[in-house]
Amino acid sequence: MPVAIEATDIRKRYPPDVQALDGVSLEVEAGTIFGVLGPNGAGKSTMTRVLCSLTRPDSGAASVSGIDVVAHPDQVRRVIGVVGQKHGSDPDATGRENLTLQGEFHGITGRELKARSAELLQRVDLTDAADRLVRTYSGGMTRKLDIAMGLLNRPQVLFLDEPTTGLDPDARTEMWHDIEELAAHQQMTIWLTTHYMDEADKLASQLVIVDRGRVVARGTPDQLKRELSGDTLVVELAEADDGRARAALAGVDGLSEVAVSGRTLRARTDDGGAMVPAVLSALEGHRVPVASVTVARPSLDEVYLRHAGRAFEQAQSDSAEVPA
Ligand SMILES: Nc1ncnc2c1ncn2[C@@H]1O[C@H](COP(=O)(O)OP(=O)(O)O)[C@@H](O)[C@H]1O
Ligand SMILES: [Mg+2]
After folding, report:
1. From the alpha carbon of 210, which atom of ligand 1 is closest?
2. What is the pLDDT of residues 31-80, one digit of tens each?
3. Residues 16, 28: contact at Cβ < 8 Å?
C-alpha cells in the first residue's frame, strides 16, 4: 500500500517549556481514514499543523504524498486540503462567496470555479443555503462548508482537525457519514483528529492514541481493544477514594491493573461477572460505600488508560482549554 503521510521523530516545543510534540513517528496508508485520538493539549493540532506545513517542527522529518513538508511547503499545500479546528469561513459572506474566494486562492477561476463550487455545495447538502450569509448557518452547516472549502483543490490528503467537536449528536452522525463517503468514493486519505473515542472507533481504519506529545498506542481499533482480553470491572464509589478502596481490592485474587481515578475504580479480570460478589464484599469489609458496579468489554478508553496511565476524561480535565 502506498504511504500518504510519513513522520519520523517529530518534535516541537513552544517557548518557554511546552513540549507539544515529543518524538512522534507515524505512517498513514493512502486511501484510508487515519484517526489521531487524544485529550485536549495532547498535541493533535500541532501535529496537524506540522504536516500541513503551517508550523515548522524543531526536528524530525515528515512528508505528505512523498513531499517533504519542511523543504517544499508550497508543493505540499497544493496536494492537501485543511480544515482547521477553528472555522475557516467568513461569516459575513455567503457560502458560495466563501467557496469562490477559496477557489481563487487556489488559482481556480471562471466557469471551472462556478461548477466546482456548485458540485461541492451539492455534495455537502448546502445548495439551498448557498446564498445565505454564513453567520445564519448552524454549527453543522458551517462545518460542512469548511469541509467543502477544504475539498476545492481536489486534495489527495484531507486534514480534519476535530471536525465534530461542538456539534450536536445529529450533526455529528451526519458528519461521520460525509467523512466515510469521502474516503470510500473519492479515494482520499483522511487525517482525522478527535477527542471522541466512539468517533475514532467508528471512522478510523488505523489510529494512534496521543498523550502529552507522544504516541502511546497504535493499531486498528479492534487490535487495540483485543490487546485487552477479558473484562473490565468498573466500580463507581459513593465518594472519592481515600485509599481504602484500593487497599480493599489489593486483597482480591483475580483482579489486575487496579486503577482509581476520583470516584471511579477500574480493574481487569478474566470473568467480570464472577468477580462482582468478591469485589463488593471486599469493599464492604473496608467500609467503602459503592454507588454502582458494571462489567464492560474493553473500550478504547481502557486501552488509553493502560497506555497513558490515566483515564481519558481525567486527561481532558487535567489540561486547560487551549486557545488555537
Ligand atoms: N501557539 C502556541 N503557543 C504556546 N503553546 C501552545 C501553542 N499551541 C499549542 N500550545 C500548547 O501545546 C500543547 C499541545 O497543543 P495542541 O497541539 O493544540 O493540542 P490538541 O490539539 O491535542 O488539543 C498544549 O499544551 C498547548 O497549550
Ligand atoms: Mg486541537
Report:
1. 22
2. 999 999 998 999 999 999 999 999 999 999 999 999 999 999 999 999 99
3. no
